[in-house]
Model the fold of this input.
Amino acid sequence: MQHLRFFSPLALSLALAGLLTLGSAGCGDRSSPAPGKAPAASAAAADPLDVVVPPAMADNFKVAPLAQADIATYQEIAGRIEANERKVTRIGASVTGRVTDVLAEVGDRVSMGQSLARVASPELTTAQLGFLRARASTELAERAVERARQLIQADVIGSAELQRRESELSIARAELRAASDQLRLMGIPDAAVAKLRDSGSLHPHAAVLATQAGVVIERKVSQGQVAQPGDPLFTVADLGNVWVVGELPEQAARSVQTGQQVDIEVPALGRQLSGKIIYVGDTVSPTTRTVPIRTQVDNAQRELKPQMLATMRIAGSPQTALALPTGAVVRENDRDHVFVQTGTYRFRLTPVELGAASGGLRPVLKGPNAGEPIVVEGAFHLNNERKRAELE
Done:
């Protein structure tokens, strides 16, 4: 059985009055401010790309309309330093034999005629014996001619015999000169040839001689190795001037001509060189679809080393395009921007797409139109003022 609780009339009246009071408060106008308080502000946040500068700062920025200018186009291609092939000599042994001594190493500077290695060879011995036989035959022919001259004065022989012996002497002398030249080609020095002629002492080895002055840039011989004529044992290069070679994309090959100016940047030196194109290939590589080009630069101080990396910048014909100074460009969030004046003392940071710099100008590929006012000086400081205002 449920129990009912009864309230007195006074209690019911008080409860009803409280409910009416709460209802009136909840249904009231919420927009009405409380007495003594100001209304809340609801202004929209400012655009972070806009900046307004005080009049006192206006003279710090220079504004100019975006206009067209003549811009020299550049092509940048990767290159490398190489020895001038016209001044590179590959040197080998002139006889077959075993290498007994190696006298030069990579990086050594050698002079013309300097011995780079020694080779012991049976061919050398045979050639020296041939020289001695030619020498003996020449001496015999000389004595025969002298005797014939005496006999012809005594009217013992006729002039025909004298002529025959003089002809034999000419042949013997020619064979002696040939034998002497062969020894020199084998690397026998003149002093050794003279000693062989005077005393008959055989030279024990043939020398591999440098045929030009320069730097040894390659060695392919070791002591004890058997060398064959024609084997390139040493490579000597004159590095007084070197080549800078690169590969030009086939699409751009027709725009480059022999004699054209080229700027060369060598990161290892930290400075820029200049030269002229001396060669443009006539064929396209089937694998890389490029055309070889090269230029030649002086290297008197030997600062440029073969296989150094380089960048070749080739100037093209000037073209007219919308352009702005490099000082007007602001780099923000990995993109290029400029400040466009939108009102009195008001500027807006505007993204742009620009080409490579040339002569202090950058062509505008996408962005403001011609005639729009652009901040060309003081853009960096204006961007700092924009950031400061954004933080405040």
Notes: The chain has a mean pLDDT of 83. The first strand starts at residue 50 and ends at 52.
